[in-house]
């Protein structure tokens, strides 16, 4: 794995400090004048934590708007490497603890993923984990099962590459399945529970895939299957 540079860590820490200061300032402005009684401390801390995550999403999206993640091999000592590593730091140090908890209801997780830049069609929900929301797009009426993982990056030794994941509409991804970078899944496809879809796999519409590594099992369009 490629080392994250000290300057990149310093940039993340500066952004995180800005996020915390904004959250504390907003908490003081909104709740400071209120008489909250014996629960004042608990309410202020809870509000500050909520605002930290909201401001973190806002700052994260602004950074990605100015320096978007781009598909392809990420060369060292480039602006692309800086934004890719910032994306990693935001996820590992902030969003991972939010996304990986099973306390947050799935409908609220949908809003969080949308806030982080995922492109989700109507009535699409994810009960698993999207490691790279800005590079993940899913159509309408699809479901990602419990503890399934979708990631749009490849780390092979010192090589770092970003590849978008495209998933169609009415797709079912089973629990604990793994969808690797560069995968395309057609409409109405089904990925069996526990399957590992290797990078750059192309899954057609109405196909059922399963296994490790995943392979085509049958087509739902084939009436003789």
Task: Characterize the structure shown.
It is built from 4 helices and 18 strands. The protein is of the alpha/beta class and 225 residues long. It has 2 domains: 1-99, no CATH class; 109-225, UDP N-Acetylglucosamine Acyltransferase, domain 1, CATH 2.160.10.10. The longest helix is centred in the N-terminal third of the chain and has 27 residues, at 40-66. It is globular, with a radius of gyration of 20 Å. The termini are far apart. The model has no long low-confidence stretch (mean pLDDT 90).
Record keyword descriptors for this entry.
225 residues; alpha/beta; UDP N-Acetylglucosamine Acyltransferase, domain 1; six-stranded mixed β-sheet; five-stranded parallel β-sheet; 4 helices; 18 strands; globular
How would you summarize this macromolecular structure in one to three sentences?
The chain is an alpha/beta fold and 225 residues long. The protein contains four helices and 18 strands. α1 (6-31) packs across α2.
Relevant CATH superfamily of the largest domain: Hexapeptide repeat proteins
Order of SSEs: HHEHHEEEEEEEEEEEEEEEEE
**What Rg is obtained from the alpha carbons, in whole angstroms?**
20 Å
* Average pLDDT score: 90
Overall domain count: 2
Reading side by side through the largest sheet, how are the strands ordered?
3-6-11-14-17-18
Briefly note the structural class of the backbone.
Answer: alpha/beta
Poorly predicted sequence stretches spanning 5 or more consecutive residues: none
CATH fold description of the largest domain: UDP N-Acetylglucosamine Acyltransferase, domain 1
Shape: globular
User: What about the largest sheet?
Assistant: 6 strands, mixed
The beta-strand count equals: 18
What is the percentage of strand-forming residues? 15-25%
Contiguous helical run count = 4
CATH class of the largest domain: Mainly Beta
């Amino acid at each position: 794995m490629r080392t994250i540079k000290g300057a990149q860590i310093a940039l993340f820490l500066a952004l995180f400090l800005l996020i915390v200061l904004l959250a504390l300032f907003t908490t003081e402005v909104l709740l400071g004048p209120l008489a909250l009684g014996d629960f004042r401390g608990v309410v202020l801390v809870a509000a500050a934590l909520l605002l930290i995550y909201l401001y973190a999403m806002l700052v994260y999206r602004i950074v990605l708007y100015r320096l978007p993640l781009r598909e392809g091999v990420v060369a060292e000592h480039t602006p692309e490497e800086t934004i890719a590593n910032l994306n990693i730091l935001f996820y590992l140090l902030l969003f991972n603890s939010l996304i990986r908890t099973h306390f947050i209801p799935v409908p609220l997780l949908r809003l969080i993923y949308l806030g982080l830049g995922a492109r989700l069609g109507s009535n699409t929900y994810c009960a698993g984990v999207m490691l790279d929301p800005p590079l993940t797009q899913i159509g309408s009426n699809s479901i990602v099962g419990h503890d399934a993982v979708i990631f749009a990056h490849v780390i092979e030794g010192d090589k770092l590459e970003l590849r978008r994941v495209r998933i169609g509409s009415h797709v079912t991804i089973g629990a604990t399945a793994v969808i690797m970078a560069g995968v395309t899944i057609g409409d109405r496809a089904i990925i069996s529970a526990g399957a590992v879809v290797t990078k750059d796999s192309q899954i057609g519409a109405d196909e059922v895939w399963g296994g490790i590594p995943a392979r085509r099992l049958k087509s739902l369009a084939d009436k003789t299957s």
